[in-house]
Request: fold
Amino acid sequence: MGNKNISIIGGGVIGLGIGWQLAKAGASVTIYERDQAGRAASWAAAGMLAPLAEAHTEEPELLNLGCESLSLYPQWVEELATDAGMFIGYRVEGTLIVGLETDDTDQLCHLYEAQQHLGLDVNWLNGREARNIEPALSPRVTTAIHCATDYQVDNRLMVEALQRAYQTCGGVLYENCPIQKIVIENGVATGVQTQNGFHETDVVVLSAGCWSGQIGGLPDAIIPPVRPVKGQMLALQMEEGIDIKAVIRTVRARYPISVYLVPRSDGRLIVGATSEEMGFDTRLTVGGTFELLRGAWEAVPGVYELPILETWAGLRPGSRDNAPILGKTPIENLIYATGHYRNGILLTPITAYEITTLILSGETPETIAPFQLDRFLRE
Ligand code: GLY
Reply:
């Protein structure tokens, strides 16, 4: 079945990951990217691989999917290194979730109890124990949860590696090539229409992130319910005296907003992120930048002296229930892989492997079965 002809709409990490795996299996794959590959949410992300830190008791299936995808990362990193000839900054120093005030401690307690209830590998620390792991933390940090198995990867390196691996395996990439519509005849997807004409295909994969609901040709009932959720971010340059190794996340019950600080091997310290329902607006605001800097400074006072290298805003593709939409649709040969919201980088390996299995075998793997579009069609 490897000789199928497949069109993928969207060249972010999800589209590139699926395309790479399919091309490697012998399929003829073409990715149509509206802009530049991997320069939207995949580029804007922080690269945290944090199913435990982001665990919510009400979302056990999503937590399982995240944990399974995290467990695939060592294999994914090695496979990418072989096919792309580069590593992607996979780091295993763990994550510290810290609290600075009594109300934060109450919230951390609640999270810790939920994590324990789920049987997760987390440890409760006092401020001194947290500072033993990360000396740059503020003396105001009184409590912390250590998620030793929540890791990180450099998402921008992963974009570069996926593009290389995909093209090395024979995948074709058209950039600046928006899809006008998915062509559907008698309930079957038969191809895609671009400004250059109709391209016939055996399977169409829709992985266009927050633009997934805007692709023409889909019956109203199956337009994927995906919206953009804006995140403002910035990058600082770590200097002597600030050498953070773990990912640090704050839990703030009141103000400022909760933030995360993600140290990169090249000395950059990524600080994120706001979460704003602003449509497709990607403007930076004084308030957003101020809240990020204040949140980072309260947790790690030494950031006050650091140079700011970059500021940006990205659009997370959030579905109606914030879980991804993966798998078959009521249209034959039309597959969705979208709506990864805050977990796109974490969920890239499992999405790529399982969607490839689905396309090559025709069978939906059990891991992704709970995430099919039909959960919205039953509402
Ligand atoms: N996963 C981090 C974020 O969405 O901000």
The longest strand covers residues 226-237. The two ends are 35 Å apart (CA to CA).
